[in-house]
Every structure is written in C-alpha cells, then in structure tokens.
C-alpha cells in the first residue's frame, strides 16, 4: 500500500530547477551512495540500534534502578520521545542528503534560519566519538568471552568462578587493551570499505540469528525455576524504587538504544531511498530494538535469581550471569560461543554507525578518502578508550563526585564516578537527550511544516498526531525529566 505522492513531485520539480541553475545536485542522492532498498535501510538502522545497549546495558541499568518501574518508564520514553524523534532525525537526514554537519548547514541555509542550529551536527560528532571510545572496550569483553566459550572455559562453572573470570579480565589493562584494539580495527575496516559492501549481507544473517539465540536463552531461563521471579522483577513496577535520576537514565537509555541524538540515524537516513516510508520503517526499527532488550532481560534475570546473584551488579552483569547458563546447559560451549559471536556482531554494526557521521563529514569537507577518514576517527577514539580501560583497574579510584566522610579519623569516599562512568553519563544522559531536544525543536518549530510533511509523506491524522507529540509532548517531557533529575521538580 503506497500513499499517493501528493506534493512530493512538486518539490522534486523545484529542486531540479534549482539544480539546473548549477547548484549542487547531491541533495537528492548522497555522494556516499544509497541503500539498495528500504529494507536495507531498516536492517542497517536496526543493526545500529540493536547493540550492547540492548544486551549488555539495558539489563544492568534495569537491575541497578530497581526493575519494573524503570522498565515501564523506559518503554514510555521509547514510545513518546524516541519514536517521534527518530522519525524527525531520519527526515532531516533524507532531506539534507549529507553528513549531519552539512545536512544541518544545508537545512539552515535553505530555510534562512539562524546558523547556530549547525552546532547540533558538531555536538553529534563529539558525542559519537566519546561513545565509541568506551563502546569498543565493552565490545572487547564480548570478544574475549567468545574465545573463552570456544575453548570451553566455562563448563560447569559456579557463580564465584564466573565473577572471578570477569574480575581477572577487567583487572588486566593489557588484555582489555588487546581486545579493544581488535574491535576498533574491525570497526575501522568496515567503515573504510563503505557500508554497502559486506555489511549489508552480514546484517541480514546475523540479526535473525541473534534473535533466535536469545529465544533459546529465554527458553533455558524458563528451566531455572526462577523464571517467574525474573519476570516479576522486570515487569512489576514498584515506584518507590524510582528516583528522578533513574527517570533520566531511562530517558537517556531510550536515546542510546535507538542510536538517537547524535546523527547516526540522520546519516543513515541520508542514504535512504526517496520513496520509502519513514514512519513505518521507524516503527519496525524501534519494535525490533525493544524486543531484543526485553528478551535479553528475560534471559538474564532468571539466571541472576537462580544463582543468588545481585541484580544491581553493574556493568559486569551480563558477563557474570550468562556463562553460568551456558556452563550448565547441554552444548553450552557451542551456544555460548555463538551467542557472544552475535553480541560482537551486534556491537560491530552499532559501532560503525558511531563513526559514519564523522567519516562522511571528513570526506565531504576535507577531501579525505573513506579509508583515511575511518582510520583517523578510529585512532582518536582508540586513544580515548584508554580512559575507560583504566577505569576498571589502575584508574578505578581516579574519580569525581565522590561523597567523602571522615570515619574514625580516616577519610572514606564512595559513589565516585570513574572516567567510564563519566563518559557514559555525559553522553547517554546529557548529550544525546539534548541533541534529541534540538532535533525535535528544529523539525517541529524551525523548519517549514510543508517541507517536513513532504519529506515524511505522512498525511491526515497520522501526521497531526506525530507533529503534536514532536512539538509539545517530547520537548516538555524531556525538560521535565532534566529538571527532575537535578532536583528542581
Ligand atoms: N544503539 C546502540 C546500542 O544500543 C549504540 C549506538 C550506535 C548509539 N550508534 C549510536 C548510541 C548513536 C547513541 C548514538 O548498543
């Protein structure tokens, strides 16, 4: 079912007239190419969205923030803020047909808006680079667990053993550095080759496989005897356990998990074929992303409770629980290796989208080849990754914002944020939601409604509802959450 393309053809006519006068032609197709179909866009964007955020981060932050109520707020944030803003981000990209920095420049010049809106593109480049630096370190953990499962290390392991393995890995800067380096090289190589060759094919196979394997894991979790307890933890809201800061973390995670707020989805949108429906594609991407996160939670928490582990164990949660499941189930080493292979893959398809906005910009404005642009970005993020590596070992007490007390004449500090904590907090909870807010304001209030509607090709009630949510509901919700988190509300 296709909508008639009301108005769209007129726009195209105007633009092509524009072109004849010698203006750059590339805003109808990006100079970097285009996805071969709308399905490839959906797959690529889902590949970007589904990643460590779903499998590693969602379960541990849900655990740290008390479970059910947090999950509910997170789902609301996806529906009321994430999906509308994702549509806006894709439409900006597809209209601009350039890297986010140049897309924003083009759109502000086209509409004679204030040039300050361009800073959004720059902030996105910085945020992507900061996220990539720690993302690669965590993806390195998954690589290491992949190898451990291949060699059968976890056969019959108990909870204390699994914790020890994790502590040994994160306690060793050399090992973390080695895996971080391997992952960053993998990411750089794919981006250097261009998104279309190789990755499209891989994503097609890997994403469905990941899904099936998660179902197998949920099936195993159902045999632990603590499935009900796991589900109750995830889905029974207890609002007493929810602080203003937890709500901000849920909002930040909605942006993180959908890859919003820094231009990754915008740059993927700039490669999207013209006729494809943005609203339907977005719903599919967000739906797949949410499902994977919930399945990961349903696989992990029953194992947590069956083994008397702590749901609030923090970033090590996934890595301390699943080896127990794989260590006990038949064919566990095989399934375990396969699972961590798929996690690595999910992280890989996400990491490339963190690099792409910067690479596209370096190619457009500075005459870099893709390969050099990818190398330069990867190298810079690799160096910054050292800060995350040291956060888990020699730098574990290089912290800020600790609460210190004098106890029996000795100063005791707790709750300090390591470099990793700071990078994560700053990007997920501040930079991405702010980026999203600016995107909502730009598409909702600054750009001409007619242009927005033409790019979105959404008419009638559907458009009105989306436009209202984007203009009023999402920005107000975000501002309320920010104020709540800093204690003003
Ligand atoms: N969404 C990915 C995940 O959940 C991470 C990611 C990829 C991302 N690209 C992004 C996060 C852009 C924020 C912005 O693992």
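-> sequence recovered:
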């Amino acid at each position: 079912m296709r909508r008639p393309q009301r108005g769209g053809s007129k726009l195209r006519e105007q633009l092509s007239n524009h072109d004849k006068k010698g203006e750059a032609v590339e805003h109808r197709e990006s100079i970097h190419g285009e996805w071969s179909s709308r399905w490839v866009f959906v797959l690529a964007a889902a590949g970007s969205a589904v990643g460590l955020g779903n499998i590693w981060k969602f379960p541990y932050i849900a655990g740290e923030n008390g479970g059910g109520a947090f999950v509910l707020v997170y789902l609301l944030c996806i529906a009321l803020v994430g999906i509308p803003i994702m549509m806006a981000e894709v439409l900006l990209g597809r209209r601009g047909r350039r890297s986010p920095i140049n897309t924003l420049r083009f759109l502000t010049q086209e509409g004679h808006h204030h040039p300050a809106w361009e800073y959004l593109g720059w902030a996105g480049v910085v945020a992507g680079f900061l996220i990539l630096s720690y993302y690669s370190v965590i993806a390195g953990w998954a690589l290491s667990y992949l190898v451990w499962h291949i060699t059968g290390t976890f056969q019959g392991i108990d909870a204390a053993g699994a914790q020890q393995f994790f502590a040994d890995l994160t306690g060793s800067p050399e090992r973390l550095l080695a895996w971080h380096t391997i992952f960053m090289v993998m990411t750089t190589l794919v981006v250097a080759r261009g998104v279309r060759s190789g990755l499209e094919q891989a994503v097609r196979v890997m994403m469905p496989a990941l899904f099936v394997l998660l179902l197998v894991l949920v099936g195993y979790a159902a045999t632990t005897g603590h499935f009900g307890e796991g589900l109750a933890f995830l889905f029974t809201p207890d609002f007493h356990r929810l602080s203003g800061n937890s709500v901000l973390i849920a909002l930040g995670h909605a942006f993180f998990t959908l890859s919003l707020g820094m231009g990754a989805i915008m740059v993927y949108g700039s490669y999207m074929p013209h006729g494809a429906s943005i609203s339907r594609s977005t719903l599919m991407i967000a739906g797949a992303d949410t499902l994977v996160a919930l399945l990961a939670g349903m696989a992990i928490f029953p194992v947590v409770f069956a083994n008397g582990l702590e749901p609030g164990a923090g970033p090590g949660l996934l890595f301390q629980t699943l080896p127990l499941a794989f260590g006990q189930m038949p064919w566990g080493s095989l399934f375990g290796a396969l699972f961590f292979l798929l996690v690595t893959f999910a992280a890989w398809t996400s990491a490339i989208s963190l690099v792409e906005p910067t690479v596209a910009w370096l190619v457009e404005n500075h005459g870099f080849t893709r390969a050099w642009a990818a190398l330069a970005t990867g190298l810079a993020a690799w160096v910054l990754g050292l800060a995350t590596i040291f956060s888990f070992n020699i730098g574990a007490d290089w912290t800020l914002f600790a609460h210190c007390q004098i106890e029996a004449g000795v100063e005791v500090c707790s709750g300090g944020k390591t470099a990793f904590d700071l990078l994560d907090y700053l990007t997920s909870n501040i930079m991405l939601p702010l980026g999203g807010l600016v995107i909502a304001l730009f598409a909702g209030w600054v750009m001409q409604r007619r242009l927005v509607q033409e790019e979105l090709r959404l008419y009638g009630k559907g458009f009105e509802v989306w436009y209202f949510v984007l203009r009023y509901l999402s920005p107000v919700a975000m501002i309320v959450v920010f104020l709540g988190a800093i204690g003003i509300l």
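The chain has 19 helices and two strands.
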